[in-house]
Amino acid sequence: MSKRMKVWALIVLNAALIAGPALAADDPAVLKDLTAVIALQGQPCGQVVTAARQGDNDYVATCQDGSRYRVFVNSQGRVVVQKQ
Fold this sequence. Notes:
Elements: H1 3-18, H2 28-40, E1 48-55, E2 58-63, E3 68-73, E4 79-83
Antiparallel strand pairs: 1-2, 2-3, 3-4
């Protein structure tokens, strides 16, 4: 993945996460942002249909195909997408 795409993924995820705790995990904007982050990381998903917030900068996203991904920002400030 190019450096530009990684930066974009980080920006998108941070925009979703920094927006504040008032955002519900199933907010359409958060679901759309998580969908974009997962796609930018090259993982198959289609569309995120639900998301559960695990903590600051940490979500478990469920895709329409049934796959689940943990999306979080690690200690180095990088966006990580792990298949669950």
